[in-house]
Design a protein that fits this description.
The chain is built from five helices and 13 strands. It has 251 residues and is an alpha+beta fold. Among the domains are: 112 residues, Alpha-Beta Plaits, CATH 3.30.70.940; 48 residues, SH3 type barrels. A hairpin with an 8-residue loop joins β9 and β10.
Amino acid sequence: MSEQNQIVTNGETQSGSVDDASVADQSTPDPSEATEPAASSQPEAASTASETPDETFDPAVDMPMYRSGMDWFVLRVASNKENFVRDTLQKKVQIEGLEERVGRIMVPTEKTRTLKGGKQRITETKLYPGYIFVEMRLEPDGRIPQDVFFLIKETTGVGDFVGTAGRPTPMSPGEVEKMLHDSKMPEEEPTVRMEFAPGDNVTIKEGPFENYEGTVDSVLPERGLVRVLVTIFGRQAPVELEYWQIEKAEE
C-alpha cells in the first residue's frame, strides 16, 4: 500500500516603504572609528544556535512509553489518509494549544531498501493501514474532552476510536510497546528484504541464464544479491543474481 504526501511551500515577499530620514540616519561609518565589533552580535548568534532543533530526537524512543495521566488509543482513519490525518491533527493541536490533552500521534511504518539495476530505492510500508495511534488524556469519567472530540471528529478522513459510546479503550502495555517499537525512526541504511533462504529452489527470470532453475546457495542482503547454484554443461556453477531476477520455483 503506498501513499504520496506533497508538501507545498508558499514563499511570501514582504515590502514596505522607507522614509528619507531613516535612510539618512544610515550614513557610511568612518573606517577610522571602527575599532571593535558590536558586543551584541555574539550573544544573538549563540541564541540562534541553541534554538536549532535536535534532528536525532525520536518521540518513539526518547520519551517514556506512558506519561502521567495519558494513555494510548487506536483511531480508525480512511485508508491511505494515515499521514494526512496525523499531520492535520498535530497542527490543530498546536494551534488550539491542546498539547496537555493530546500528545504523540503515530503512524508505524516499515522502511526497506530495494536495489534494481544498481539503483537504490527506499520504500515505506504502513504496518497498520487504516489506523493511527493517539496519546491522549481523557476526562475522569473516561470520555474524550469535548474540545478534543470536536477537533478530531471535524478532521477529514477520521473515523471512530476503538471503544464504545465515546469511551475509547486504552491499549495494553504490550500493544503500546510493540507500536512504539514499530514507530522508531528507520535506520539510515535499511537492509534489503530478502524472501529467499539457502536451499530454496528458484527459477531465473531475467539475464543470460533466463529460465534456468537452480538452488539458492547464500543470500547477500547488504548487496541485494543471491548466489544461486546453476547446472551449466553438466556441472554446477555459482551465479550471483540480483534478488529481483529470480523467483521461487513452483513445487
